[in-house]
């Protein structure tokens, strides 16, 4: 009998998120510079111990632990469940499996927590089932599950093009230190993209691929990453979704200001938010800034973490 397989998978912050126009398929072309950071979920896959009416193993069964566990769906609304089903279907095998997520990444927080669980479940099931899916195929399955899932598998630092799923690994010259301030309640990614389109239309710039310029990565930002230069990176951080996230959650302005007042080099909303990310000089500044943010009363909690870190891996 095969035992359990546990995969550790990191959160991400977008150091640049340049959003192009809305495409005919509803997605947006991106220049998305991802950095994997040291907040992790753990996904454990174990053999199914249940049967459905037809004698099969009855599909994936999910349990979740952690402070936000109540906010995580346990059915097919969970990307980890969909990941296990997709892998089973690809290999023509029974999808029965027990999945457990030990959740530490903020839920619906703009840090790719759901995507991390999908990448973790894919790798955990592939290992448990011995299906030995080649890495490029695993990446393709990740892309079917969601735009950020390939990066959760790969980790490190990468430029995501297309809707974010076409990855080019990036070189980094050192470790960058961050503080992440989480908010009460998440933001829906589709809502944030829709609001971004609405704000652009209201400003007279249009919202479609024809009216919005192609998103491009900042060469100065890629250079700062390559040199491990936090001060230079601080001047280049950019998130086109930030005005939309702040429009939906105006209280984020106070969080961003509190982190800057505490001495952070720069502040931005992480992805579609509402988590706010603060770049700091070193680990000690991270501890101090996190303390000041917690004391400010402008966030639920604040935690230091650094990156780049490795992507999904069996532990
Ligand atoms: O790919 P994923 O399922 O994570 O996307 C969630 C939603 O976010 C999409 O349905 C779409 O509304 C929006 N999105 C987008 N453009 C992207 C990525 C996501 O509009 N590049």
Automatic annotation (TrEMBL):
Gene3D superfamilies: 3.30.230.10, GHMP kinase, C-terminal domain. Its EC number is 2.7.1.148. SUPFAM superfamilies: GHMP Kinase, C-terminal domain, Ribosomal protein S5 domain 2-like. It comes from Streptomyces boncukensis. Residues 222-297 form the GHMP kinase C-terminal domain. Residues 78-156 form the GHMP kinase N-terminal domain. One of its GO terms (biological process) is isopentenyl diphosphate biosynthetic process, methylerythritol 4-phosphate pathway. The active site is at residues 12, 148. One of its GO terms (molecular function) is 4-(cytidine 5'-diphospho)-2-C-methyl-D-erythritol kinase activity. Pfam families: GHMP_kinases_C, GHMP_kinases_N. It is an enzyme of class 2 (transferase). Residues 45-55 have a biased composition (Basic and acidic residues). Pathway: Isoprenoid biosynthesis; isopentenyl diphosphate biosynthesis via DXP pathway; isopentenyl diphosphate from 1-deoxy-D-xylulose 5-phosphate: step 3/6. Catalyzes the phosphorylation of the position 2 hydroxy group of 4-diphosphocytidyl-2C-methyl-D-erythritol. Keywords: ATP-binding, Isoprene biosynthesis, Kinase, Nucleotide-binding, Transferase. Belongs to the GHMP kinase family. IspE subfamily. It catalyses: 4-CDP-2-C-methyl-D-erythritol + ATP = 4-CDP-2-C-methyl-D-erythritol 2-phosphate + ADP + H(+). This is 4-diphosphocytidyl-2-C-methyl-D-erythritol kinase. Residues 45-65 are annotated as: Disordered. HAMAP family: IspE.
